[in-house]
Amino acid sequence: QVQLVESGGGLVQAGGSLRLSCAASGPFFSTYAMGWFCQAPGKEREFVAAISWSGSNGNYADSVKGRFTISRDNAKKTVYLQMNSLKPEDTAVYYCAARSQRFAPSTMNQADFGSWGQGTQVTVSS
What is the Cβ-side half-sphere exposure of residue 54, based on CA atoms within 13 angstroms? Predict the structure, then answer.
């Protein structure tokens, strides 16, 4: 399994942008599909975006399509979430996660992810 540490969260005005990073340590990072999830106060944690282990495929929650972009740099063992046109409803703690199985496809299902970071807070003011 990999260990994950998120960074890049903060306070931003509506319409602004943030770039989250997730640095991984441990072996075989390049063989794990990765995902971003978020949890707003009083709500369940939910899927935001995922990327295949090769980086060739990404999928997104409907609420962020066209605004957020997930990417990865396997040489740096880092996955990113570029967040543009932020809205107050994007306010949440954002978590990075790695799939449990190597070479498995990307997925929106939280149960398929075995390693999680500690989260980074994103707050969007109106």
Answer: 5
Measured between alpha carbons, how far is residue 100 from residues 45, 111, 113, 115, 121 in Å?
18, 9, 5, 7, 24
Asked if 12 and 88 touch (Cβ cutoff 8 Å), the reply is no
Return the structure tokens found at 119: 């989260």
3-state secondary structure of 88: helix
Cβ atoms of 20 and 9 within 8 Å: the answer is: yes
Task: State the number of CA atoms in the 13 A half-sphere of 10 facing the CB.
Answer: 11
Contact 36, 50 (CB under 8 A): yes
Q: Has residue 40 got a pLDDT over 90?
A: yes
Judged against a pLDDT cut of 90, whether residue 1 lies above it is answered with no
Q: Report yes or no: 49 and 60 within 8 Å, Cβ to Cβ.
A: yes
